C-alpha cells in the first residue's frame, strides 16, 4: 500500500469526520444540552487518531481493532462512565466491566428512556461508541484502501451513523433532517466521486444537476407528499413495559380509600395549596374512567423510564417534595405538579419507575410498599382564575374517544351551559351547577337516600336524571368530565389527595379522608386547569328536601330513557370493573401500516434520485423489444447483432465503429479472452457474425423461425458476456449511456 500524500489524507479526514459530527449532533438533544458533547468529541478525536496512526504505521486490521478496544476502555471511563473511575479520570476494574456491559445494554436504555436521558450509569456509551468506531472505520477505509472505489465506500459510514442517530433520536432533532441530508449529499457525493477517480470535468455538470434534482426533490417534494404527517420515531413506537390496562380503574377504588383511617403516606415539603396526584384518566368506556393504554405519545397511559433529568415546559414554582409510603398499595406512585427529577436511593426501585410527562403521573411496575422513600423535584403550576383565562380557546389535545356516554350527560351539559360563552365559562358553569345543586354522601344512607359507588353509565344516569343528585368525588368528577367532553372541550379525571395542611406545617400524614377526585380542562396558554365539582361534605340531603322538592333540577330537561343495548352492563362486580382489552391484531395492523406508509414516503426521494437511471434502463428495454419484434426478418437478425455490439460497448469492451461484423467478432473475442468464459464468448460471437452476414447479404430472405432462433443465440451470448465481468461492471453496464450515443457509420460493413 502506497502512503497517500498528506494533503489528500487531510481532505479525506476533514470530509469524513465533519460529516460524522453532523450526523451525531442530534444526540445532544437526546442526552440533554451539552451532556454528550465530551463523549462525542472525544470519540471522534480518538477514533480518528487510531485510524491515522494505524495507516501511517501500516498496522494490520487486528492491531487496529485491538487499539480501538484499548482506547475504548482507557478513555471510556472519563468520557462515558465517570462514576466508575477514580477522580473521574483514572479507570478501574469496574470501569472495564461497566463499559463491556454498556456496549450491549445501553442502546435499549437510551431508546426506552424519555429524553433528555442524562448521563447516569453507562448511558453515554452509545454516543461514545458511535463516534469512536464510526470515525476509526471511516478514516481507516479511506486511508488504507488500495483502490479509489474502495476508498470511496467510506462515505457509507456517515450514512450508517446517521441512520443509527435517527433510530435513537427524537421527533424534532436539534439539526433539521433536511439540512442534514442536504449537507451529507453535497459533501459526500463529490468526495466519493473524487476518491473513485470519476470526478472528471465533463461529468461535473451532470453530477451537479443530479445532486440538484435530489436536493430539490428532498427539500420541496417531500414536504408536499408528506404534508403534516409526523416523523416516525422508534422510541414512540415501542410498546411500554407497563400497560395500565392490566389494572383496574384507579377511580373505582375511591371508596376503598375513604374507608382507610391509617396513614397512607407522609409528604414533606408540600407547597401551600398543592395537590397530590395519584392517577390521571382520560378514557371512558361506559363502565369506568381509566388510564388510556393505546401507547400514543400524548396519552395518559404512555409511561416510560426517565433519566436523571426530566424536561418540562410547565412554568410555576419549584419545590422539592419527600414521600414516605405507609399503608398505600398498588402501582400508582403519588406525585406533585410536574416532576423535573426523581431521587430514589434503591436501584431496584429506580429501575421500576415509569413516568408520564403528559399527565405528571408515575408508577412503579413492581408496586409501592411500606417504607418506600423517594424525593421529587417538581414545578407546581399556578392555578389561574376563570376571569383570568377569559376567552382563551381550548387546547388542541388528542384524547381517546368516549364510549357508552349516557344521553342525560349530553342533554344536561347543553342545558346548564346554554348561557356560557367561552370554554372557561362553560367549565365553570358545569362545576358550579354540580357543586351547588348536588349533595354529598360516601354511601351512608341519609334520610332514606342511598349513594351507590361506581361511575358507569347507569350510575351517571341516576345521578343526573334522578330526583336528587347524591354522590361523592367519584361520581361528580366522572359526570363533569363527561359533560365537558360532550361540550367539545378536552377534559380528564384526576384521582389524588388534597391535604388540609401545606408546607409550613412540616410533614403531613395523608389518610383516606384526604382523597379527592377532580376534573382538569386544557386551555391554550394556561395548560390543564383543575375544577372541583364535588359539593362540600356538609351539604347532605335532608328530609325536607325530599318532602318538598320545590327545585329538584329546574333547568334540566329530562331525556328519554336510553335505548336497549346502548350500554352493555359489566359482567363483573361494578365495585371493581374491568375493561376489555382492545384487539391486539388491530393495533399490530395499524402499526404495520404506519411503518409501511413511512417506508413508502421515505422511498420517494430515493425513487426521484434513481429516476434518471430507471429512464436509461427503460430506453434500453424499449430498444431491445423493437429490434426483436421487427416485422422484417433481416432487420430482426441485424438488430440481434447490434444488441451484441451494444452490450459489449456498455461493458466497456467495444469493437471499432467502422469494423465489419467479422472484424468486430474478432475484436470482441480478443477483448473477452482474459475473462472467465472468454472462449465461449469468442465462439458465439463468431457464429453470430457469420449468420448475420448470411442473412443480410444472401439472395434469399431468412424465415421468421430462423430470426427467432438467432435471437435465442443472442440472448445466450449476451448473458455469457455479462457473466464474464465483475458485478460492479455489470451494474454499471445496465445504466451506462455508451450504447445510446450516436456513433457515426455504426452500420457494419459486409464481409470481404
UniProtKB/TrEMBL annotation:
Query: Pro residues compositional bias: what residue ranges?
Result: 557-567
Instruction: Please give the residue ranges the record annotates as the region Disordered.
Output: 529-585
Q: Give the highest taxon in the source lineage.
A: Bacteria
Task: Please state every residue range assigned to the domain named Transglutaminase-like.
Answer: 465-535
Answer yes or no on keyword Membrane.
Answer: yes
- Note one Pfam family from the annotation: Transglut_core
- Acidic residues composition bias: which ranges? 570-585
Task: List the keywords (alphabetical).
Answer: Membrane, Transmembrane, Transmembrane helix
User: Which residue ranges does UniProt annotate as crossing the membrane?
Assistant: 9-28, 34-54, 61-81, 123-143, 150-168, 174-192, 204-226, 598-619
Q: Gene3D superfamilies annotated for this entry?
A: 3.10.620.30
Show the InterPro entries listed in the entry: Bact_TGase-like, Papain-like_cys_pep_sf, Transglutaminase-like
Name of the molecule in the record: Transglutaminase-like domain-containing protein
Upper taxonomic lineage: Bacteria, Bacillati, Actinomycetota, Actinomycetes, Micrococcales
Amino acid at each position: 500500500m502506497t502512503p497517500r500524500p498528506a494533503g489528500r489524507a487531510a481532505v479525506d479526514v476533514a470530509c469524513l469526520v465533519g460529516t460524522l459530527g453532523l450526523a451525531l449532533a442530534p444526540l445532544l438533544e437526546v442526552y440533554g444540552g451539552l451532556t454528550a458533547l465530551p463523549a462525542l468529541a472525544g470519540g471522534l478525536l480518538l477514533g480518528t487518531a487510531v485510524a491515522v496512526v494505524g495507516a501511517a504505521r501500516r498496522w494490520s486490521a487486528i492491531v487496529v481493532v485491538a487499539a480501538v478496544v484499548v482506547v475504548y476502555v482507557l478513555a471510556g471511563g472519563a468520557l462515558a462512565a465517570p462514576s466508575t473511575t477514580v477522580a473521574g479520570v483514572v479507570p478501574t476494574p469496574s470501569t472495564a466491566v461497566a463499559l463491556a456491559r454498556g456496549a450491549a445494554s445501553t442502546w435499549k436504555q437510551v431508546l426506552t428512556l424519555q429524553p433528555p436521558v442524562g448521563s447516569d450509569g453507562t448511558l453515554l456509551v452509545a454516543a461514545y461508541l458511535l463516534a469512536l468506531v464510526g470515525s476509526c472505520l471511516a478514516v481507516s477505509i479511506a486511508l488504507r484502501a488500495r483502490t479509489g472505489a474502495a476508498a470511496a465506500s467510506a462515505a457509507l459510514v456517515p450514512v450508517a451513523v446517521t441512520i443509527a442517530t435517527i433510530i435513537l433520536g427524537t421527533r424534532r432533532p436539534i439539526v433539521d433532517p433536511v439540512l442534514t441530508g442536504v449537507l451529507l449529499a453535497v459533501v459526500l457525493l463529490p468526495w466519493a466521486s473524487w476518491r473513485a477517480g470519476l470526478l472528471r470535468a465533463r461529468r461535473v455538470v451532470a453530477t451537479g444537476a443530479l445532486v440538484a434534482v435530489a436536493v430539490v426533490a428532498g427539500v420541496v417534494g417531500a414536504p408536499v407528499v408528506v404534508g403534516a404527517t409526523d416523523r416516525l420515531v422508534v422510541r414512540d413506537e415501542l410498546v411500554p413495559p407497563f400497560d395500565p390496562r392490566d389494572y383496574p380503574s384507579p377511580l373505582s377504588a375511591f371508596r376503598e380509600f375513604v374507608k382507610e383511617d391509617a396513614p397512607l403516606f407522609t409528604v414533606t415539603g408540600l407547597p401551600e395549596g398543592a395537590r397530590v396526584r395519584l392517577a390521571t384518566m382520560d378514557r371512558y368506556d361506559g363502565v369506568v374512567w381509566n388510564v388510556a393504554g393505546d401507547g400514543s405519545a400524548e396519552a395518559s397511559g404512555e409511561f416510560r423510564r426517565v433519566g436523571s433529568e426530566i424536561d418540562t415546559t410547565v412554568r410555576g414554582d419549584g419545590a422539592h417534595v419527600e414521600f414516605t409510603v405507609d399503608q398505600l398499595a398498588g402501582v400508582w406512585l403519588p406525585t406533585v405538579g410536574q416532576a423535573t427529577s426523581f431521587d430514589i436511593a434503591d436501584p431496584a426501585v429506580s429501575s421500576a419507575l415509569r413516568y408520564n410527562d403528559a399527565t405528571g403521573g408515575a408508577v412503579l411496575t413492581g408496586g409501592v410498599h411500606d417504607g418506600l422513600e423517594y424525593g421529587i423535584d417538581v414545578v407546581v403550576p399556578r392555578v389561574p382564575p376563570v376571569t383570568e383565562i377569559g376567552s382563551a380557546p381550548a387546547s388542541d389535545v388528542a384524547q381517546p374517544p368516549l364510549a357508552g356516554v349516557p344521553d342525560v350527560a349530553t342533554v344536561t351539559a347543553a342545558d346548564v351551559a346554554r348561557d356560557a360563552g367561552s370554554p372557561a365559562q362553560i367549565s365553570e358553569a358545569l362545576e358550579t351547577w354540580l357543586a351547588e345543586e348536588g349533595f354529598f354522601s360516601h354511601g351512608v344512607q341519609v334520610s332514606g337516600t342511598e349513594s351507590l359507588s361506581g361511575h358507569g353509565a347507569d350510575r351517571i344516569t341516576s345521578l343526573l336524571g334522578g330526583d336528587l343528585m347524591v354522590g361523592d368525588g367519584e361520581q361528580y368528577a366522572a359526570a363533569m368530565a363527561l359533560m365537558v367532553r360532550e361540550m367539545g372541550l378536552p377534559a380528564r379525571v384526576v384521582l389524588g389527595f388534597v391535604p388540609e395542611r401545606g408546607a409550613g406545617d412540616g410533614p403531613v400524614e395523608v389518610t383516606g379522608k384526604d382523597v379527592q377526585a377532580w376534573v382538569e380542562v386544557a386551555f391554550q396558554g394556561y395548560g390543564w386547569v383543575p375544577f372541583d365539582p364535588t359539593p362540600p361534605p356538609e351539604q347532605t340531603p335532608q328530609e325536607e328536601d325530599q318532602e318538598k322538592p320545590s327545585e329538584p333540577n329546574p333547568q334540566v330537561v329530562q331525556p328519554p330513557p336510553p335505548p336497549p343495548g346502548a350500554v352493555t352492563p359489566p359482567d363483573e362486580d361494578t365495585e371493581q370493573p374491568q375493561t376489555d382489552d382492545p384487539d391486539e391484531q388491530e393495533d399490530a395492523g395499524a402499526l404495520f401500516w404506519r411503518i409501511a406508509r413511512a417506508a413508502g414516503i421515505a422511498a420517494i426521494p430515493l425513487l426521484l434520485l434513481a429516476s434518471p437511471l430507471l429512464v436509461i434502463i427503460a430506453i434500453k428495454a424499449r430498444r431491445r423489444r423493437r429490434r426483436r419484434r421487427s416485422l422484417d426478418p433481416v432487420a430482426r437478425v441485424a438488430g440481434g447483432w447490434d444488441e451484441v455490439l451494444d452490450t459489449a460497448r456498455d461493458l466497456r469492451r467495444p469493437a471499432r465503429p467502422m469494423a465489419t461484423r467479422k472484424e468486430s467478432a474478432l475484436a470482441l473475442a480478443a477483448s473477452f479472452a482474459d475473462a472467465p468464459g472468454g472462449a465461449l464468448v469468442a465462439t458465439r460471437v463468431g457464429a453470430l457474425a457469420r449468420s448475420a452476414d448470411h442473412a443480410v447479404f444472401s439472395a434469399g430472405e431468412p424465415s421468421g423461425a430462423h430470426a427467432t432462433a438467432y435471437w435465442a443465440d443472442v440472448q445466450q451470448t449476451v448473458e455469457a458476456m455479462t457473466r464474464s465481468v465483475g458485478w460492479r461492471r455489470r451494474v454499471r453496464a445496465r445504466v451506462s449511456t455508451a450504447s445510446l450515443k450516436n456513433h457515426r457509420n455504426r452500420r457494419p460493413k459486409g464481409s470481404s
